[in-house]
Amino acid sequence: MPKTLLTAEIEALVGRTVAYTAPEPFGAAEFRYFALAVDDPNPIYTDDAAARAAGYDGVTAPPTFITETNQYMSGAMDSHGYGGHGWGIEIPGTRMIRGGHDYEFHQPVKVGDVMTAEWTVVDVSERTSRQGALMVEVISEARYHNQHHELLAVNRERLIFQELS
Q1: I want to staple 99 with a disulfide (CB 3.0 to 4.6 A). Which of 119, 138, 155, 158 is the partner?
Q2: Does the global pTM surpass 0.85?
Q3: Which candidate, 154, 127, 153, 151, places its Cα nearest to that of 138?
Q4: Any idea what the CATH number is for the domain that residue 88 is in?
């Protein structure tokens, strides 16, 4: 029987969904701090008048704000100091590599929005790298909604567990 890293337990993750709702609404300061952190000087993230002149209801968040932050988490940090969502996947003899994200942005995030992030594992597969190492790829999708159940963004994330040589 050929060697495999893809176990029945990992395959059973497909379809698993978890949801988190932020413990409080977003504020303008969060948008400003994030814009500063990503070095985006666009005034629609910091100046209400500029945002209104651009057609918004007021300051708005930079696009990746909700996909790159964990505003929706209210629990404790994990053993690595990470406070965001994780599937808790551990595959002995591998290292985890972030394989990238694909984003879709549907509408701006506004001051006062309360976000819910719903994560679903959509696919798992196994393949061999060019160097001959086995890899398990886990693809999950996060759908971010506001308090009105309007879709704000979608984030497809790829995690790769690569066999150590």
Answers
A1: 158
A2: yes
A3: 127
A4: 3.10.129.10
